[in-house]
Amino acid sequence: MLRIGLTGGIASGKSAAAAVFAELGVPVIDSDVIAREVVAPGSPGLAAIRARFGEGVLQADGQLDRRALRALVFADPTARRELEALTHPLIRERMAAQSAAAGGPYQIHAIPLLVEGGAKRPGIDRVLVIDCPEEIQVERVMARDRVDEASARAVLAAQASRAQRLAAADDIIVNDRGLEALRDAVTALHRRYLDSAAVYAGRDTAAE
User: Fold this and answer.
1) Are domains 1-27+106-208 and 32-102 of this chain identical in fold?
2) How far is the C-alpha of 204 from the C-alpha of 208, rounded, in Å?
3) Residue 171 in 3-state DSSP?
């Protein structure tokens, strides 16, 4: 099974690209969706977060208060590492289970923080970066989140740099020309991945 790690900076168009792959019939394993599942009310993940960070990270209905938790860990690298130590093993375990069940000629594993966590992780064969100029990212974040430029740039600064992501990439789509151009680029790459998947399948058969 060929597994493509899809990543990119905030507001780069990762979700839009993943949606196009899904429309083309490619299984998409989304770490953001799984990250919400593993901290659902009643889950061991939420219990662990509550024990470490206290009642202040819970809403009145028992749901995780993501805004409160983000405020706690955003400016505290130690707290962020502790949170990641609690949640990342749960996320990876569930991603592996979903991948094993999903099948397909190849799969997209959408992982926003793939580069921050080490792009050459087990189970990822190629890294696809959805890229765009930082100025466009800033504009998109300001419009989407209704924040000022300083706040938008602070979010970008907390992630891997554009240069770091590009250095980790096997494939790059520059998303700076609108949705139709992105769709065309994903479709072209889909055809390449189908060819690569056939080669991977042939290697597996030969190994057997």
Assistant:
1) yes
2) 6
3) strand
| Rounded distance between C-alpha atoms, residue 34 and residue 92, angstroms | 9
Report the topology of domain 1-27+106-208: Rossmann fold (3.40.50)
pTM of the model: 0.87
Torsions phi, psi for 5 (to 5 deg): -85, 115
Amino acid type, 38: V
Q: Which CATH superfamily is domain 32-102 in?
A: P-loop containing nucleotide triphosphate hydrolases (3.40.50.300)
Per residue in 17-29, pLDDT (tens digit) is 999 999 999 999 9
With a cut of 50, list the residues of the chain below it in pLDDT: 205-208
The Cα 33–Cα 91 span in angstroms is: 10
Q: What distance in Å separates the CA atoms of residue 157 and residue 151, rounded to the nearest whole number? A: 10
